Amino acid sequence: MDGTAVQDKTVAEHIVDFLERREVRHVFGLCGHTNIAVLAALADSPIDFVTVRHEQIASHAADAYARVTGKASVVLSHLSPGLTNCATGVANAALDCIPMVVIAGDIPTHYYGKHPHQEVNLHADAAQWEIYRPFVKRAWRVDRAELMAEILEKAFHLAESGQPGPVLVNVPMDIFSQRIPADCFDRIRDNTRALVKPSIDDDTAREIVERLAKADRPVAYVGGGILLAKASEELREFVDHMGLPVAHSLMGKGALRDDHPLVMGMTGFWGTELVNQSCLNADYVFAVGTRFKEADCSSWYPGYTFNIPGSKVIHIDIEPQEIGRNYPTEIGVVADAKAALRVLTRVAKEMYPDGFARSEKKAEIAEFRAAFKASNAAMAESPAFPMMPERILADTRKALPENAIITTDVGWNKNGVGQQFDILTPGSILTPGGFATMGFGPPAAIGAKLAEPDRVVLSLVGDGGFGQNPAMLATAVELDLGIIWLVMNNNAFGTIAGLQKAHYGLTYGTTFPGTAAAPTNGPGYADIARAYGAEGVRVRSADELLPALQAAIASGKPTVLDVAMINNPTPTTGHWNILDIYSPDSEVSHVAT
Ligand SMILES: Cc1ncc(C[n+]2csc(CCOP(=O)(O)OP(=O)(O)O)c2C)c(N)n1
Ligand SMILES: [Mg+2]
Description:
Elements: E1 9-10, H1 11-21, E2 26-29, H2 36-43, E3 48-51, H3 55-69, E4 73-77, H4 80-95, E5 100-106, E6 139-141, H5 148-160, E7 166-172, H6 173-177, E8 179-180, H7 183-186, H8 202-214, E9 218-222, H9 224-228, H10 232-242, E10 246-248, E11 263-266, H11 273-280, E12 284-288, E13 312-317, E14 331-334, H12 337-351, H13 359-380, H14 389-399, E15 405-407, H15 412-420, E16 429-430, H16 441-451, E17 457-462, H17 463-466, H18 472-478, E18 483-489, H19 494-504, H20 525-532, E19 535-539, H21 542-555, E20 559-564, H22 578-582
Parallel strand pairs: 2-3, 2-4, 4-5, 5-7, 6-7, 9-10, 9-12, 10-11, 12-13, 13-14, 15-16, 15-17, 17-18, 18-20, 19-20
Antiparallel strand pairs: 1-8
Helix pairs in contact: 1-2, 3-4, 3-16, 8-12, 10-12, 14-21
This protein binds thiamine diphosphate and magnesium ion.
């Protein structure tokens, strides 16, 4: 450190300058006595601080913001209860590989271990940062002010590179207020902000193309890694040239438009017959940016989604730990999906300039799609009220422009959407895949709308999920965000109620008893919306939904639509091992009522 340098700014002010230089536009968070120094510095900054009423709302909103912008989002949290409230959203981001930098205040360094106000110290002094260790890529406790610049720099690099994910920068409050010389931050000023990602070599690419070309029944199986790498266009070029039918995981939904002639759909428990059968019969599975997760692979049971070994696996992923984790892999490549697919397409065009039509497979896909649609038609057009879930999804698709962003939660809105709702713009569905967090979707819509204010943003959510974070409405109204929340209201934690009914013959603790005022529909979600200053509409017949959606989109106002829905489970063709755990001796189907 230069002893003559001016001690010009506090660490908090330097942090804000750093974030401005990184072109951060929004910071999500909630105040506390440990972080108001940073808020004071933000007050004079072009960066907007998005105030929420519960830290989980901040971390989910930041998660969605990062999914849409493709860059690390920033959360500012208070210590202990603030940080634990925030944890669910951070863990959700971690399991879906979403880059995020969480900056948290902590107790002052000179009080470590003395049990100052709100210290977490039962096993070690000033140990709140350890709570995050299992789900962040790295957690720093900043014990010296001069180290802040390098730590922040590393934090952003780590969050955004390799397999992305959240990191924690935990800062004792006295460090925020310390004045440090400017050159502490100047040291990193000219450092690069974007790291070049690894690709595939031509020889390996040729080997892969050769095997896929010679295969009889190859299948591409893609995951969220395609969207994280913004590789949809490269994927389309490669599968079009090779004529590869495409299956995808839940997180891979929308990697290609769902109406692309080669897209078969989502695999696994909630997959359809076509996609699960095609994967079972594949001689080669060409997997990119996916981790072969349990729900997508029918608990890895042979005979439901994948038959591996049997089918051979080629797997490209940015993270070596994902390769060979659950299935033996013939060729494994650690590479960025976008870079690797570019090389593969170039090599494939050199080796097989005419490409592969696989017209028969395309015809089979088209035929299945038509038959699946026909088999759902009665439900998708049903006038029943409470509404059929299929009709809610069909009317929602009709009302939305192709590039609308949809956030899902868990429940029918996730499983049914994965199975039967067409996504027509890559990256336009944001879903909590790995952590499957109930309560993700409504606040996630706030992050999505802030990232893309000109696009329609709709949160499809169950009544259980909506009930988790209704306070997000305060933020949406304060910022006048024209989001639509469609509450698929079956007066139940329906997905779990369906499992319980099938295995135990009852619904205890899984449905809502109702209230005297609303015995069958639970709390008045439209009234709650109006109390927060948003629009609230209780839809009263099936035919009212489409016009209500169109009116909400046209109004541009934050609007909650409360839509009564029949409590039927999402149909399944795959398997989930929990069924055997509940009922080991009988083959109980989830769809049984
Ligand atoms: C935070 C959290 N708690 C519990 C669960 C377990 N869970 C999975 S689906 C579900 C029910 C969701 O209910 P709702 O949002 O009403 O959707 P529905 O299943 O009725 O369509 C629950 C409780 C979870 N995934 N996340
Ligand atoms: Mg429900």
